[in-house]
Amino acid sequence: MPIDPTAPYDDQNIFARLLRGEIPSTRVYEDEWAVAFHDIAPQSPVHILVIPRGAYVSWDDFSARASDGEIAGFARAIGQVARGAGLVENGYRVLYNIGRDGGQEVAHLHAHIFGGRPLGRMIG
Ligand code: 5GP
Asked: For the chain, which domains are there?
């Protein structure tokens, strides 16, 4: 079910619980700003989710309210995760789903990193 991007942040969403360690995940990276873990239902050989530690519903919310430090830290974390996964040489894709038309299902901002095979053109 797509989320309502205008709803307030719900601290019981699955990624909030995962951040607090209440549910398990296979973390591949964490720093002051972000945590990264494998998607539970990977859509490519490498499918990693990167989330900010801050409470933001979506990219819209994050880009409007996050501090410059949070935005820079999150952007650098995404690059670091992709490098750590060995994706730079062959390339990869970063995707944000936002709201209903974007098909966003979890109401805590997350960047998808896809890689490990040719990904086709843009939107499938
Ligand atoms: P969205 O459609 O919101 O952009 O993507 C949500 C992603 O979260 C999906 O790719 C889905 O497989 C993943 N996901 C949902 N629940 C869990 C979970 O409990 N653990 C992990 N690791 N991934 C999840």
From this structure: 14-115 (3.30.428.10)
